Hints:
The complex is a heterodimer of chains A (91) and B (391). Chain A has 91 residues and is of the alpha+beta class. Chain A has helices at residues 39-45, 54-64, 69-85, and strands at residues 16-20, 25-30, 33-37. Chain A has a three-stranded antiparallel β-sheet. Chain B has 391 residues and is of the alpha/beta class. Chain B has 15 helices and nine strands. At the A-B interface, strand 1 of A face loops of B.
Amino acid sequence: MRAEETDVPRLPRGVKLKYDQVRERHVLLAPERAFDIDETAAAVLELVDGQRTCGQIVDELALRFDEKREVIAADVRDMIGDLIARRVIER
Amino acid sequence: MTNDTAELNQETAPRPAAVHPVGHPIGILAELTHRCPLRCPYCSNPLELERREAELDTATWKRVLSEAVALGVLHVHLSGGEPTARADLVELTAHCAAEGLYTNLITSGVGRAGAMLPALSEAGLDHVQLSFQGAKAETTDRVGGYAGGHAAKLAFAAQVTDLGLPLTVNAVFHRANIHEVEDMIALAVALKARRLEVAHTQYYGWAYANRAALMPARPDVDRSVAIVEEARKRLEGVLVIDMVIPDYYARYPKPCSGGWGRRTLNVTPTGRVLPCHAAESIPGLEFWSVRDHALGDIWRASPAFNAFRGTEWMREPCRSCDRREMDFGGCRCQAMALAGDASLTDPACSKSPFHARVEALATAEAAGPAPDFIYRTIGGASVPRREGAKS
């Protein structure tokens, strides 16, 4: 599943992005699941706030990372789409 | 434990502590109480249930849960028995939330669960896992041994989603309800669950004692798997379905608890700390209690946790198997129950010399007449011995 640029993703109740002090990395906590989150994924998830569209998230990341917008867009839409399919992100 | 160990003569001594890395546990199963209004014949609790007078007090549970956070635990599963039978559950939930733990309530949804839920939500509960014993009222009420249970669960599920809490429906399947898998999927969607666990019975505790009454026939199992696979595609983004396969019919064993002493710990109502909920069925293991030790010391140093850590304890065919770091030889408790030695390969594995006999046993039990359920009860259960796989 791939999210659309116009989708407005959000973390629903029961899904939490947390910095794990013991393992020194971000984790995404969901029902019966804990996802290891690398720095890039954390940068995406920190912008998932129920306000920004996927397109706006891509725009912001394109300013911060030295990569073409279309490459970032593909990665972001796949990642968010995958988490939508797993019912970890809602839109 | 009376049943699991009755047929076994061989003692399994803990291995000397070998060199193995001790990682950080990810989850803790807090069995707050064994009290429960339901009487499910597949309950994973031991046959000798612990009594209320012996349960840990609130202050001790708070200390243990704080120690769990320091160890690296991310998820706490508030379970039992029925955890809402504990009057201090709201206080414990608030404590977990303040500590940053992800709190999961594992509940039957009957009794006082509904009355307590708004306060639990307010205290910071993150997720609810609600059990159903069937998709139809008569099935739920008969299997759970509780009249009116199904109706109470439907009302409870609505309460959960009305509060905005994520809902998982957990349904244990066996020969008395395996024809309701399709209906259960539809029910989970109707209840707005985000997840459904289609959990084929695992044979420990009460389920082991009731095995012949629960063992499904192979064609019914295959059909249920096909139904789930079709539904997963159809319901992508609507309902996540996790499935536990009945391992007597499996080719490879499950990586029980993600490996012994690797990812999870389990605290019983009276405070003993186990690598998994059935570990006390293995004779000769020394379990430590949170009444005497800090949780971190138990995790790192207790003999029971070190008994089967890593791969040093393994014998053939596990020792040289290329799956040894994937399934860790399967389940130690099942090796004990079915092969008579906890350090052998789980007979669920097709490489185990006991595997053919286990499969034949399952097939024969499923084909035979279903005995009456022996319902879970605190004290007084008279449980007949059940044939294992060893000769």
